[in-house]
Amino acid sequence: MTADRTRLDAHIAALDAPDGLKTVLTVAAATCADISKVVAGGALAGALGASGQINVQDEEQKKLDVMTNEMLTDALLASPAVAGVASEEMDEVQPAPHSTGDYLVLFDPLDGSSNIDINAMVGTIISVLKSATPAPTEADFMQPGRNQVAALYALYGPQTMLVLTTGAGVKGFTLSNDGDWILTHDDIAISPDTKEFAINMSNLRHWSQPVQTYIGDLLKGDEGPRGKNFNMRWVAAMVADVHRILMRGGVFLYPWDSREPTKPGKLRLMYEGNPMAFLVEQAGGKATTDGVQPILDIQPEHLHQRIPVALGSTNEIDAYAGV
């Protein structure tokens, strides 16, 4: 192992942050490393396929959804720094059995789990908030994303990466064969301009007319009003699409559609929208619901609230807002 590269534990130790937050980040990173092993085991570990259970989102859970949710819940609630947790896979918040914690942790334990059976990229997304009480209820979790003190995701792909912000920029760490997180991407920044967009084109007929117009203009390429050719990418896992944007720019769009008109969007504010918005803004991008409304300014109304999402390179998000 290269000796001159910063390890995550050293980076965390050097943070200008309370010891409790450092503990939370250390536990989260260690659990993500353990999840990476389970994901890599796949069929050999008996971890593929459906679990036979339905979560609070009325979605069929994969075996790995259940396994990874239990891993994160157990590890975090065992930490004296954690007052409680909430997960996309659980109906209610889970207070810690002790009464000493200062932090609330929310997570999507396995984002993109529909990809797992085809050996495509998946990840874990984590948001950290301060707790006003050592015995939190759901109301204590109802904080806007600007209150986050940390956000991170782990991406399980050809390499396992952990991307982290504590409000002072974004850094990326790669999991070594020795099991150490090593700093490989310092000061991650999103380019303001792009020629890439990520959206599920199969839903085009269900989008509002302004969204259809915007996408239509992109597809016209250099012969259209945008005057340049665009490429489309879609991994079907928000964590992977956002990672690509952090690495090389682009926009990720998941707009409202007419199939379920009473729902404002599909993605979850607390487990996906807020942590990813924090990371994107810290990397110099924009994270909005519609090109205008910042995700981080939304006052949550309930634990499993859904929102539309438009995030990524600033100039392209502005163009999306202007349609």
From TrEMBL:
This is Fructose-1,6-bisphosphatase class 1. It comes from the Bacteria. Binds 2 magnesium ions per subunit. It holds the Pfam family FBPase. Pathway: Carbohydrate biosynthesis. Homotetramer. It is found in: Cytoplasm. InterPro entries: FBPase_C_dom, FBPase_class-1, FBPase_N, FBPtase. It catalyses: beta-D-fructose 1,6-bisphosphate + H2O = beta-D-fructose 6-phosphate + phosphate. It comes from Brevundimonas intermedia. Mg(2+) 2 binds at D108, D111, E272. Mg(2+) 1 binds at E88, D108, L110. Its main location: cytoplasm. SUPFAM superfamilies: Carbohydrate phosphatase. Its cofactor is Mg(2+). Signal peptide: none annotated. Keywords: Carbohydrate metabolism, Cytoplasm, Hydrolase, Magnesium, Metal-binding.
